[in-house]
Specification:
The complex is a heterodimer. Chain A is of the alpha/beta class. Chain A contains five helices and five strands, in the order βαβαβαβαβα. In chain A, helix 1 links the parallel strand 1 and strand 2 (33-36). The longest helix of chain A is centred in the middle third of the chain and has 14 residues, at 67-80. By secondary structure, chain B is α/β, with parallel strands linked by helices. Chain B folds into two domains: 5-56, no CATH class; 77-393 and 428-455, Methylmalonyl-CoA mutase (TIM Barrel), CATH 3.20.20. Chain B is built from 22 helices and ten strands. Chain B has helices at residues 5-24, 51-56, 90-102, 114-117, 141-147, 166-180, 195-202, 209-226, 238-242, 247-267, 272-275, 289-311, 316-319, 339-353, 373-389, 403-426, 429-434, 437-455, 482-497, 500-515, 521-529, 534-545; strands spanning 80-81, 84-85, 108-111, 157-161, 188-191, 230-231, 233-236, 279-285, 323-327, 358-360. In chain B, helix 14 (339-353) links the parallel strand 9 (323-327) and strand 10. Classes of the chains: A alpha/beta, B alpha/beta. Chains A and B meet through helix 1 and helix 3 of A and helix 4 and helix 18 of B.
Chain lengths: 132, 554
């Protein structure tokens, strides 16, 4: 069985990358391959990277409050590119009341502060859209 | 028991400084006592201050400043209570500042939104979704005029968290002051202006390291002449710690960055004692109460020694770590958020026992969103409680002489010094960051910390122990997404109405200066006076300097 491929991405201008780096390390320790985009990626760049790297999962991280624009924009571009078999999850400082709209837009799950990395590993493993 | 002769001389020098200070500003009270009426001395000392004590701890306001930078510390006056704030539009933030000043806050601290911090106007494509979110949106002098409307800039001191475009925002501040009739030499405040930690930990860089260091030394030189009371840099460990470092790494990487700035300025021909007194620092206050107290004391001692040994600074002010503290945002929990009030109170107490010069206390709801007015008020009250009710301010450096605190202070100093020597061997902080060394050290510490939480080895109350199912209820602060549209409309109007010839001429002169070796600051002041926008100015500099691309470290 091949390894699960994850694109860890920082859309927008936010520079807080502690969380995305910790989660990348945890996913790797759990046997996944992780490609990290680095900071300041546009939604277009993220979707292009996901296609180029042929990933199973995109993990978006935003702590600046711009998730309300950036997350749906990533999903919109993915639909345009017909990337329907890629699982997208998100995390950061995201108020509870914003979660339903983000899920509506196609983000499978939102992980807030205090999340156990094991829960993210389990969620990815159980919700992949593509066969390994 | 009488003190050894040599120490008596130091003591007399301290007493003379105290007398001088008292003649100008009397202490807060004529007599200090405990609640039960016991007298509280200004300073407590060992009965016999031996050479070891004199070398390592000394006296307040004296080298190596372990016991603090002022001769009377908080008996003279409290630290500056300075809450970091700013969101949405300049008008909205101006209202929050005036509210905070009415509530007894004693200094301002401006949070800018990310487009401003990265040198994009609010109507730039990269600014989508970010305008007004983590701070106030400032695209031109017009916004800055609104931000400080009815706030007298000769009376307040203002700290601005701005790095890559720090020179531009300082130029705007100077220009607003001019319009209020306040001269640049009267201005008091701080720009963060610490680009090295942006590359390693915070992410709001624009230009590559070399031109960035040049802009910073330009600011040092300009302010030494024109804005002499301004703190030209706030060398910041805060974000290094937030990114996951240990306390030792926070001290080491911060001071290593500081050494790189001093070296760059000295190499640019500046005298260390001309700009050294205006360097300031910014530290985190994390959960380990006594380790944090020791950390501030160790940082003061280590910096004083390094600057004296390496650069031969003579002015005592060049040797002092004067610092701002913010409580650790990363220690706040989204679960049971009211517990955060208590965490913040302990952390604020560490900063005070460690001798901070100014303090921001986080609000309980910051793991959820930007703070509400109610949450900010409680955070400010926490500082006021420590200052006015707890009594820890009545004597200087009250934990000195604790076996544990002194041992921790020694160890942090030693281990931070070891790190600095490793960084020296790599060629200094810019090189260590370029190689990804600093980033990797921080990432490893962050991951180890997370694993300790997940195994339960480290308890986080309300998160991995004593867990309840309660969800946060109550309001959160929301930024109206209309801010971007309003800013875009205002910018279009500005560009139509201003003297565009003056703008073009100003930007051309800036470009020529950037290509040569002239100081950029006078040009930045000219550009902002003509209402050139932040984005236009930064684009001009991008054209000459290029943009930084971060190396991948994972």
């Amino acid at each position: 069985m091949r390894k699960i491929r994850v694109l860890a991405a920082k859309p927008g201008l936010d520079g807080h990358d502690r969380g995305v780096k910790v989660i990348s390390a945890a996913l790797r320790d759990a046997g996944m391959e992780v490609i990290y985009t680095g900071l300041r990626q546009t939604p277009e760049q993220i979707v292009a990277a996901a296609m180029q790297e042929d990933v199973d999962v995109i993990a978006l991280s935003v702590l600046s409050g711009a998730h309300d624009y950036l997350f749906p924009r990533v999903m919109e571009l993915m639909r345009e590119k017909k990337l329907d078999d890629v699982l997208v999850i998100g995390g950061g400082i995201i108020p509870e009341e914003d979660v339903p709209a983000l899920k509506q837009a196609g983000i499978a799950e939102i992980f807030g502060p205090g999340t156990n990395t094991g829960a993210i590993v389990a969620f990815i493993t159980n919700n992949l859209k593509r066969a390994l | 028991m009488s003190q050894p002769q040599e120490f008596k001389e130091k003591l007399a020098a301290w007493q003379a400084k105290v007398d001088k200070s008292l003649a100008k500003h009397p202490e807060r009270k004529a007599q200090f006592t405990t609640i039960s009426g016991l007298p509280v001395e200004r300073l407590y000392l060992p009965a016999q201050a031996d050479q070891g004590y004199a070398d390592k701890l000394g006296l307040p306001g004296q080298y190596p400043f372990t016991r603090g930078v002022q001769p009377t510390m908080y008996r003279g006056r409290f630290w500056t209570m300075r809450q970091y704030a700013g969101f949405a539009s300049a008008a909205e933030s101006n209202r929050r500042y005036r509210y905070l000043l009415e509530q007894g806050q004693t200094g301002l601290s401006v949070a800018f939104d990310l487009p401003t911090q990265i040198g994009y106007d609010a109507d730039h494509d990269m600014a989508r979704g970010e305008v007004g979110k983590v701070g106030v949106s400032i695209s031109s002098l017009k916004d800055m005029e609104i931000l400080f409307d009815q706030i007298p800039l000769d009376k307040v001191s203002t700290s601005m968290t701005i790095n890559a475009p720090a020179g531009v925002l300082l130029a705007m501040y100077i220009a607003v002051a001019e319009k209020q009739g306040v001269k640049a030499e009267q201005l008091r405040g701080t720009i963060q202006n610490d680009i090295l930690k942006e590359y390693s930990s915070r992410g709001t860089y624009i230009f590559p390291p070399k031109p960035s260091m040049r802009i910073i030394t330009n600011i040092f030189a300009y302010c030494a002449q024109q804005v002499p009371q301004w703190n030209t840099i706030s060398i910041s460990g805060y974000h290094i710690r937030e990114a996951g470092s240990t306390a030792v790494q926070e001290v080491a990487f911060t001071l290593a960055n500081g050494l790189a700035y001093v070296k760059a300025a000295v190499e640019a021909g500046l005298d260390v004692d001309a700009f050294g007194p205006r360097l300031s620092f910014f530290f985190n206050s994390h959960l380990d109460f006594l380790e944090e107290v020791a950390k501030y004391r160790a940082a003061r001692r280590l910096w004083a020694r390094l600057i004296q040994e390496r650069f031969g600074a003579k002015d005592p002010k060049s040797l002092m770590v004067r610092f701002h503290t913010q409580t650790a945002g990363c220690s706040l929990t989204a679960q049971q958020p009211k517990n955060n009030i208590v965490r913040v109170a302990f952390q604020a107490m560490s900063a005070v026992l460690g001798g901070t010069q100014s303090l921001h206390t986080n609000s309980m709801d910051e793991a959820l969103s930007l703070p509400t007015t109610e949450a900010v008020t409680i955070a400010l009250r926490t500082q006021q409680l420590i200052a006015y009710e707890t009594g820890v301010t009545e004597t200087i450096d009250p934990l000195a002489g604790s076996y544990y605190v002194e041992a921790l202070t020694d160890q942090i100093e030693q281990k931070a010094h070891d790190y600095i020597k490793r960084i020296d061997e790599m060629g200094g902080a810019p090189e260590a960051i370029e190689r990804g060394f600093v980033q990797r050290e921080i990432q490893e510490a962050a991951y180890a910390y997370q694993k300790a939480i997940e195994t339960g080895e480290r308890v986080v109350v309300g998160m991995n122990k004593f867990v309840t199912k309660d969800k946060h209820q109550g309001e959160l602060l929301r930024v109206d997404p209309k801010v971007r549209e309003e800013q875009a409309t205002a910018l279009a109007k500005l560009r139509a109405e201003r003297d565009n010839q003056a703008v073009t001429a100003g930007l051309a002169a800036l470009k020529a200066a950037a290509q040569g070796e002239e100081n950029l600051m006078p040009h930045l002041v000219n550009c902002v006076r003509a209402y050139a926008t932040l984005g236009e100015i930064c684009d001009t500099l991008r054209g000459v300097f290029g943009e930084y691309r971060a190396p991948s470290t994972i």
